[in-house]
Specification:
The radius of gyration is 21 Å and the shape is globular. The relative contact order is 0.15. It is α+β, with helices and mostly antiparallel strands. It is 30% helix and 21% strand. The strands form three sheets. It has a six-stranded antiparallel beta sheet, sandwiched between helices. Strands 8, 9, 10, 13, 14 and 15 form a six-stranded antiparallel beta sheet that branches. Strands 2-1-3 form a three-stranded parallel beta sheet, sandwiched between helices. Helix 1 packs across helix 9.
Length: 365
């Protein structure tokens, strides 16, 4: 197959004076692109790398790929991860990973939390505040996380802060409002261990609200493979203002995770069931990662902190790849499995690829 490997490279990202530190950390490195390309070429595919920028549309028209291996995170705008998939769908090109709707929904934390709550999946209590004098809901207690609703925006206010009291909360709201963002998401801070659940595959059907609790029901998530769970080392770093900034890890990636995470059997079972359900209800496809926090102040109750439909595939640093390695998977196997899942979803065969070459990228097939 002719595969277009699509990504936004960190080295190609825009820069400007006083830009926030670590702004483009989510973007891919050339090391990741090379590793994926080698894995695909070893499997017999032709690989062409394309940057996910303004040149992408014309470049896709020129090469007419059979399938796009999409890693694009985007640079600017709301739901920037969904920008390249929108182009691919307009051109009717098949691609790996989550679709347009899932990438839009998971780019908005409030929408993600509303969907999870609707399906009975545990997410920390939250509220959106649009005015300085708007009162807090009774179910929210300090400390609280204060952050922009839209994930990944290029904005200084997107730093996640912790408000320990009413005065800090109002000061942080003012900071966000001055940046031009409202409403602001206020969320119950959950202190405790962070667990990452990575998976590859697809559900055979939409996962109902309580399917994980029904032992006699068919299992719509049987097509998903769950890797060993990872625990992230967490630290809190005081800021000059007396608040706290949330850091995911310190030091190099391999030393930042414990795999498999030291958990009780029933905890592992519950985490896997909830992760499969979150993956399904948000429309994730082919591969993904769900991040949990175990509340140390409430008997280690599980909360879904984040659903990532497009996690990093860095061969030696990404949590998903480390978990796969801990499960005995070679990197080539992980990449091939993601590709196979996408091919099966799109019903791509050598015959359909040949028809596509004959009829052109705009032909109906």
């Amino acid at each position: 197959m002719k595969i277009a490997l699509l990504a936004n490279l960190r080295q190609s990202a825009p820069s400007w004076p006083e830009m926030p530190a670590g702004l483009w950390d989510e973007l891919d490195t050339w090391e990741t692109i090379q590793a994926i390309a080698i894995a695909l070429e070893r499997a017999g595919h032709q690989v062409i790398f394309l940057e996910g920028d303004q040149t992408l549309y014309n470049n896709l028209l020129a090469i007419t790929p059979d399938l796009c291996f999409n890693l694009c995170q985007g640079y600017f705008g709301e739901a920037r991860k969904a920008q390249v998939p929108a182009i691919l769908e307009m051109l009717r090109l098949s691609y790996t990973g989550a679709g347009l709707l899932a990438l839009v929904l998971t780019s908005n934390e409030v929408m993600t939390k509303r969907i999870l709550s609707c399906h009975g999946l545990p997410t920390p209590a939250f509220q959106t505040l649009a005015w300085m004098d708007e009162p807090l809901q009774a179910n929210l207690q300090f400390p609280l996380l204060v952050k922009s609703n839209r994930i990944g925006e290029v904005n200084k206010a997107t730093v996640t802060l912790i408000a320990d009291d009413e005065n800090q909360l109002r000061a942080q709201l003012q900071r966000h409002f001055e940046e031009g963002y409202r409403p602001v998401l206020v969320e119950q801070a959950i202190t405790g261990r962070e667990i990452r659940v990575g998976m590859v595959g697809n559900s055979v059907a939409s996962i109902p609200k309580r399917s994980a609790e029904n032992k006699k029901a068919s299992h719509p998530s049987q097509g998903l493979h769950i890797f060993p769970l990872l625990e992230t080392k967490m630290t809190f770093q005081p800021e000059d203002e007396g608040n706290h900034q949330l850091n995911h890890y310190q030091g190099t990636f391999p030393s930042a995770y414990l795999c498999p995470a030291p958990l009780e059997v029933d905890q592992v079972t519950a985490l896997k069931q909830l992760a499969k359900a979150a993956f399904g209800v948000l429309g994730c496809l082919d591969f993904g990662e769900v991040v949990f926090r175990l509340d140390e102040n409430d008997h280690h109750k599980l909360y879904i902190i984040k659903v990532n439909p497009l996690p990093s595939l860095h061969p030696s640093q990404a949590a998903l790849c480390l978990a796969a390695a801990g499960d005995g998977w070679r990197y080539d196997e992980l990449i091939s499995r993601i590709l196979r899942e996408a091919r099966q979803r799109h019903q791509l065969t050598p015959q359909t690829s040949y028809q596509r070459q004959l009829m052109g990228i705009n032909g109906y097939w």
